[in-house]
Amino acid sequence: MATESTDPPLGELEAAEFDVHTDEMLVNMGPQHPSTHGVLRLVLRSDGEVVTEVTPHIGNLHRCAEKIGENLSPRQFIPYTDRFDYLAAMNMNLGWALTVEKLMDLELPEKARHIRVIMCELNRIASHLVAAVCYGLDLGSFTPFVWGFREREKILNLFEEVCGARLTYSYITVGGVTADLPPGWLQQCETFLNEFEPVIDELHALLTSNAIFIRRTAGIGVMSAETAIDYGCTGPVLRGSGVDWDLRRDGEPRYTDMYDGYSYEVIVQTDGSYPQDHDYPPVPAAAVLGDCWHRFYVRMLEVVQSMDLIRQAMEKYARADGEHAVKVKVKQKLPPGEAYLETEAPKGQMGYMIVSNGTAVPWRVRVRSSSFCNLSVLPELCRGVLLADVPAIVGSLDLVLGEIDR
Amino acid sequence: MDFQAITDRLTERCGGRITGSNAEAADPWVEVSADGLLEVSRFLRDEPDLRMNMLHCITGVDYFEPDEKKAAKVDWQPHVEVVYHLSSLVHKHRLVLKVVLPRWQDDVEGRLPEVPSVSGLWSTADWHEREVFDLCGIRFVGHPDLRRILCPADWAGHPLRKDYEMPSEYHGIQAR
User: Fold this and answer.
1) pTM of the shown model
2) What ipTM is given for this predicted complex?
3) Which residues of B touch A (CB under 8 A)?
4) Are B124 and A351 an interchain contact pair (Cβ–Cβ within 8 Å)?
C-alpha cells in the first residue's frame, strides 16, 4: 500500500502554520475531555497553532491507595490493585502478589505460574487493543474502535468465566490464583485466539498503514532513547524509542522465572528493523524511531507476541500437575523486611514496594506507576508542536489515570 | 556487577558518604548521608562501569509509632527514610540507596526535613520528589518546582506521615 507518493506536498502550508504569531493564549484541556483518556487536565500555553508549554495537572482520582495499604493485609489489598490500571487489572494483581511473595520467600506451584502467564498476556492483549483503537478514535477513526472493543469483549468473557469479574478481577493473589481454570476454558481460549488472529490484519489495514493515520503519527512526538530513560519511561514507550529492554527478559528472577522455558523476542526496532516473523505493514518512510507511530506499532506487534505466549502457556498448563495455589491466610504474618519488585505491565514497569515490621499489615506500601513516569515526559514532547498534535502525543503514551493518581 | 562489587567501588570513591549497608536484605541497600547524596548519585550515574541511568522510584517511609504502648517496643528511633531504586539498563544491575533524615528539621515540629534533589541527574525525580514532598512531607532542596502533585495545592498536612490526621471537612465537603 503506497501512501507517501500520493500525498500532496503540504510543506508550505505546514510552514505557514508554524509562522502565524498571535497573542499568547492559555488553553485548558480536560479534566473532562475525550482524548485525555480519563481525568487528566492539561494547561496549554499556545501562540497561534503552536504549543509553547504544556503543564499536566493530576490527582483528580487520588485516593491515597498507599495509605489504605498500611491498614490492610496484603491479600485484602489485592482488590485495590485492580483499580490502578483498570484496563490491565490482572497485571496489577500480579505485581503486588509477586512483591509480597518475594518478601515471604514463597515458592509457587507450576500450575499457578502458567495460569498467571495466560491471564497476564490475555490482559496485555485487551489493554493494547484499547490503547490502539482508542488512539484511532483520538485521531478521528471510529471503525477500529468498535472492532477492537468487540474483540476485547471476548477476552472479558473469558475472564468472567474464570473469576466472575469483567474488569476488577482480584484473580491473581498472594500464593497463586484464586481458582483453577474451569473445565473447557482452554478450548474457549483457543477459539478466541483463532478468531482474533485475522482481526489483527484488519486493524493493521485500518490504522497502521492508513495514510491519514500515518500523517497524524509519523514523525510526531519524537522521543530519543536518552530522554525516555532519563524520565523513567518504560514499556512500549521505551521500546518505541528503540531501547531493547523488557522486564520479562531483563527483570528480577522472581519475575522472569515465570517466563522460564518460554520462547519470545523483545519487540523493538534494532538495526533498522523489527523482529520479522510476520507480514504486517512495514515502517513508513515518514516514521522516525521514537515517534507516535513507533509506540503504536510496538503495541500492535506485542499483541501477536502475547498470543504466541498464551499458546505456549496453555500447552505447559495442560502438562503441569499440582495445585493452583499455596495456602496463604488472609491475615498471614509477614516476615520483617522490605521488598521492591517491578513487573512488565502493558503500560510499562509497574513497581510495588512493601515494608513490613513483622505483623500481618504492612508498615508501608509504595506503588510505582508506569503511566506516572510516562506522563511526566509530556511537557518535553509537546514543546513547539501544533495544537492538534497534542492529543496524538497524549494518546500514544497510553495513559491510565487510575494508576497515575493512585 | 553484583552488590558487593558496587559497594566496593562506592567505598573506594565516596567512602565517607556511606553510613551503612545491608547485603542480606531482599533488595540489598546502601545508606548515604544527606549531604553526600548528590556526589554518590553522580558517581553512580556517570561512572562507565556503573552507569545507573534509570531512577525507578523514590519512596518516603515514616518511622514513627503514634501508639505509646507499641512505641515502647520498637527497636528504632523516630525518623524518615528516602529510598531510591536505581538500575543500569547498560549493565543490568540494580542498587537501592537510602537517606535517613530526622522527622522534623532541627526537631521543630512542622519544619520539613531536607534532602538535596536529584532531579538534575534523573528527570524521573522531578515528579517523584513532588509526590514524596506532597505525601510524606520531605523537602527536596534544589528542586525546580516543588509543589504538591496529587493532593490539592491548599491541602494541609502530609497523608503518609504516621501522625497525620484526616481533616473532617474540605471546602464544605464532609471528608469522614
Assistant:
1) 0.88
2) 0.90
3) 25-27, 53-57, 59, 61-62, 74, 83, 85, 89, 92, 94, 96, 122-124, 126-127, 135, 148-152, 159-160
4) no
